[in-house]
Design goal:
The structure is a single chain. This protein is largely without helices or strands. It folds into two domains: 1-45; 49-79, no CATH class. The chain is 5% helix and 12% strand. It has one helix and four strands, in the order ββαββ. The protein has one helix at residues 37-40; strands at residues 12-14, 21-23, 66-67, 70-71. A two-stranded antiparallel ribbon has the order 1-2. The protein has a two-stranded antiparallel sheet with strand order 3-4. A hairpin with a 2-residue loop joins strand 3 (66-67) and strand 4 (70-71). The longest helix is centred in the middle third of the chain and has 4 residues, at 37-40. It is elongated, with a radius of gyration of 20 Å. The model is unreliable at 39-46 (pLDDT under 50).
Length: 85
């Protein structure tokens, strides 16, 4: 596959649904929208987050979660008893 801007070759894989070339990092086909096999089988790392028991950053504008006592995005320390969003 060729980059439309710099014309360098991009490493690619084939879409399992339509056979089009998709960049190696692609999770969905740019031609038919089908999920790539790796994306369809489940993303790595999501098993370690318990979405039901997570604690959101106490800063109402931050999108982070509390991991080991601090926010994963802004670094704000979490204190027990503080309001969570």
């Amino acid at each position: 596959m060729e980059c439309p801007h710099c014309h360098n070759q991009i490493d690619c894989k084939r879409c399992p649904a339509c056979g089009a070339e998709v960049p190696l990092e692609g999770q969905y086909c740019m031609h038919c929208g089908a999920p790539m096999e790796e994306a369809a089988s489940g993303s790595e790392g999501t098993d370690s987050i318990d979405f039901d028991d997570r604690v959101l950053c106490p800063d109402g504008t931050c999108t982070g979660i509390i991991v080991e006592g601090t926010c994963s995005e802004c670094g704000r320390p979490f204190e027990d008893g503080a309001e969570t969003g």
